[in-house]
What does this fold into?
Amino acid sequence: MTSSHSQALFDRATGVMPGGVSSPVRAFGAVGGTPPFIAAGNGARITDADGRTYIDLVASWGPLILGHAHPAVVEAVASAAALGTSFGAPTHGEVELAELIVSALPSVEMVRFVSSGTEATMSALRLARAATGRARVLKFAGCYHGHVDSLLVSAGSGVATLGLPDSPGVTDATRSQTVVAAYNSTESVAEAFDAFGDDLAAVIVEPIAANMGVVPAVNGFLEDLRRRCDEAGTLLIFDEVVTGFRVGWSGAQGSLGITPDLTTLGKVVGGGLPIGAYGGRRDLMEMVAPSGPVYQAGTLSGNPISVAAGLATLRQLSAPGTYERLESLGAALESGIERAIKQAGVPAGVQRVGSMMTLFFVDGVVTNFDEARECDTTRFRHFFHEMLAWGVYLPPSQLEASFVSLAHTTDDIGEVVSAVEESLERSWP
Ligand SMILES: *Cc1c(COP(=O)(O)O)cnc(C)c1O
It folds into this structure.
């Protein structure tokens, strides 16, 4: 499907931007074809440069939990912008957002704002290394923590779908500081701790993995991590950039009842504007400059417009019943797709936590990166383009999460399910 305006824009873009995009997965490398250039979004729908409208399940990769251009967010952004876009000085809004985060997340006593999730994880690692005096970090294959050098080893998301297990430009010295274990494998964690426990500054983990598709932690996995970290004097970092305020008001840590030492946030906390944050125990956070010696700074950190969008989003989310509504929309989508899978008789399954889910084209449950990579990506490519033609915009890669927002209606979910029924039939002719 060539869309004239999008095609023309993509042709221009590829001349002046690598791959024609500002972030790799947007280029449709894993599914082929020309990405629609998006002109506008409203509620659950987006419209491309050629005037085609889609039900959006990407939600800007997670942040837009209220849907596009929510009136409260637009109003907050406009009001904040009218008062000045940046001061490089402390503002009232930051204090409110920080207090809100501290009140919501059980493990977070203090928080520092940055401008992206990548900055949050990078800074949390620096802090963990400073606090422990150790060098190495344990991460899990298929977990993605932004494009931090030392975390680009066996990473999920675009790194995985582009078939770049590690990125050139990451030095061997950096790579050697990263230990990789298998997600959901306590044996693999035990081996890593046996070999490197004395030198592990931190374990960083997505408490519900979302960057190899949605892969929940199995019972006992995170509890085991918490226990091992305590025994070894290693800090446990929950990367809740996706799950924070997405799976519940108190994040994955609240719903799972496990307390990390440090937490990283992004996506939903910025309501669709650039933001990131890291926080945790007071004694650790007080090591951050200027309270302590661990340097970390940012010209636009805590930007007033991002903070206003974040506050407006979180205030909407704090209304009674929002997470119940997200859960019921997610459950309706899951059961509709499961029905369509049965009807079509294809090897596939849905994995979902609340409003985030992945339709995996593989038989059986996916619990780790190796299993996720067994998916039939050729089928996915066909399916993806069928869905797009039916007017449903999915993440353009098998190993990503789809997101339902509060703007989706049960009718929208019904439309998506019908599109899945048709698209499955056509992808397995
Ligand atoms: C998106 C993401 C990041 C990186 O955030 P950016 O804002 O894209 O830098 C980090 N960790 C997780 C779990 C993410 O999903």
Remarks:
- The mean pLDDT is 95.
- The two ends are 20 Å apart (CA to CA).
